[in-house]
Amino acid sequence: MTNKKVDLFGLFYQNSLAVEAIVIFLIFQVLTGGMFMTFRNLSNLIMQGATCSIIAITMCLVIITCNADLSAGRFLGMLGMIAAIMQVNYSRIPSGLVVLMVFAIAVSVGLWHGFWVGYMKLPAFIITLATQLVFLGVNQYISNGRIIGPVTGIIAEMGNGYMPSISGKRNDTTLIVGAIIIIAYIWFEIAKERKSIKQGFGATSLGKIVPKIVLVTALAAAVTIILYNHKGFAYAMLILFALTLIISYVSKNTKFGRYIYAIGGNAEAAALSGINVSKELLKLYVLHAFVVATAALVFLGRLNSATTAGGNGYEFTAITGCVVGGTAITGGRGGVVGAVIGTMIMAALDNGMSLLNLNPALQYIVRGAVLLFAIALDAYANKRKAKMVHAV
Which domain range does residue 324 map to? Predict the structure, then answer.
């Protein structure tokens, strides 16, 4: 009988997100003297990371197709400025109409990006870099460099509102929503496993799904307790959760989602198999623009005003979060949930460095090092997997 060698790297790579999160949280908990993992700071961390995490939901799908969006941050800033100007300078326009107009602008920009990338076959890197400059210029032009605010109504609620308490005493709605999320997740995982068995992809294995369900349930329960002990569930968090759930389902269970992964794996082969690559990329960029517009409204509502610096660098945080969360920068592999968790880890990194009052120059170095480490880890894992396949 031979002893099977434990693949330590493979074990680490499969659980790298959990390892990175644990290491970051423990380091900052020690360095900040216990300030990092207080209920108040963790609740604020989730709120701070919500905007970039929303962007990452569809940014990961864009990266999966071997494309990019370098304009997302400045696009968010421009949309926030447009919404603020319409609401503050033209107070007769209802908040609901302002939101609809922002989404209409977003869809038109998504069509623009999708046309050039999907149909004209131009590099997404260049197209979105160009529009990044355009969005920054438009933002500065329409605002004259001024801060526009405050915002009210549905926009303010999207970024800074919290679910009301039923009893009026404690955040009981937080416990109810948390329980619903946990139950829905468990049901979804069991249903997915049953579907897999029914389709003949393997026998049932409690050892495979139970640890994952226990881990995610414990994490969801911990987040619920954290929020319960602070202000409760913010609408921004619910928006993030809902979009994550919807887009994750779409990417894994619909024809559109399968096409996205096929294009990322090999665009030419996807085209030969009958997939209209140009059309699917157009749809993806429209969806991405819609999600970025949602992030813009959440961001505007949280800050309560718009500035010309709004959204600066947010695309970098979202892309880094996607890579940290397991999205392959070479395309074809990744997931929405991993991207959101990865972006939250980056938010935790920023939050911890801010609590330590770390020099801004060093903060940039740390962010760059984290991105480089994530890319190097992914590249090494792919190279190692290729060698193992070749050896077999």
Answer: 44-161+275-357
